[in-house]
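A favour, since you know our structure tokens better than I do. Go ahead and set the record down below.
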Amino acid sequence: MNEVIELLQSHRSIRKFTDQKIPRDLFLELIRAGQSAATSNHVQAYSIIHVRNQANREKIAELAGGQKYIADCSDFLVFCGDMKRPTDSAERAGADVIRGMTEQFLVASVDTALMAQNVVIAAESAGLGICYIGGIRNNPAEISELLKLPEHVFPVFGLCLGYPDQDPNVKPRLPVESILKEDYYREDEAMVDGFDETMRDYYGQRTGGTKDTNWSKQLSPLFNAKLRPHMREFLVKRGFELK
């Protein structure tokens, strides 16, 4: 163990922030740390919208499902997959560019996630708290219009940054033996059953015994209905034909 590993293993999502603002110099260093993440073929297929307009933040909070900490945190970012910049640049350099490929969508999504996680680690190392906001995909078209995103740019998730005003417990993760497969895939139902009991205890302690559920039950809303079925049509309209 070292300080970096300890930091990574102590991650919590923060949903309540103080009024203290992140200094601009520190904020920019966090973004530069993000840029140091691995990127496929040095494409750097991401852009970040730093949403400073308070009315826009409040609108995004509403569109993302009423998550008020979007409006309350020191800084709110929308991380976007951006294939416009690299494809436009290649085209200006003389390439006969083909747009809308599924691989381009995957590269942009992966690059964006890697970049954001670097920002998160840097932020937490400086004593800040973070909360990813996947809820912006509830209404991606409206958010794209609000942020004036061009074709071939799409919002992947948001990120709240600020100084924590709460100290939640670290949420348990699946046993490493469950997700680490040696040589080939193995089923792990017994480990999941054990993890369900761990999570039942966690939720009970966190809510003073008012929440009786587990990991498997918490997954139900994700899979008992079509989750965000609008996303494919939205991505096609963004120029990602998924060819």
Notes: The mean pLDDT is 96. The chain has twelve helices and four strands. The radius of gyration is 20 Å.
